[in-house]
Recover the amino acids of this structure.
């Protein structure tokens, strides 16, 4: 079947327009909120070892061991760990407690990363929630934002005194 040239061009233009609109919607952050970062790009490191899926939640208890092993190590230590941790902050199980609890943040020296008994004054919570008082980007960078339930477990641990238990 022969399609006249002007109708063929019209269909081509229509298809190209539809593709362009779809691409723009994706780049502008449209989607389910789990596959794109705040700039509308796919997450750099969406898979988190040990969480059961790309966007699964950690099974956490409000104590240091659970939070460090099931939350900080798998989500944070690939950037904040090793020989040259980002911002000089080592969030591996062995170091996270002494690096966070009662230690001023480099970005907000007026706030401790973890202020025992005061989750609202803990910069870790601000960085996880993406609060207005945050400097830089929400954490974990390059990964989906953590669930409110996960952040609440960290809040409870801090509210209970942020003990090394």
């Amino acid at each position: 079947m022969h399609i006249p040239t002007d109708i063929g061009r019209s269909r081509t233009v229509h298809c190209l327009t539809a593709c362009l609109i779809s691409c723009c919607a994706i780049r502008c952050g449209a989607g389910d909120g789990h596959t794109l970062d705040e700039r509308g790009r796919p997450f750099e490191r969406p898979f988190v070892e040990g969480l059961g899926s790309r966007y699964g939640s950690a099974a956490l208890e409000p104590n240091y061991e659970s939070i460090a092993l099931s939350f900080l190590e798998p989500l944070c230590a690939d950037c904040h760990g090793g020989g040259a941790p980002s911002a000089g902050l080592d969030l591996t199980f062995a170091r996270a407690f002494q690096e966070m609890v009662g230690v001023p943040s480099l970005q907000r020296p007026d706030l401790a990363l973890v202020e025992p008994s005061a989750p609202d004054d803990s910069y870790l919570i601000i960085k996880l929630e993406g609060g207005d008082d945050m400097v830089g980007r929400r954490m974990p960078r390059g990964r989906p934002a953590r669930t409110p339930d996960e952040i609440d477990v960290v809040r409870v641990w801090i509210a209970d005194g942020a003990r090394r238990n």
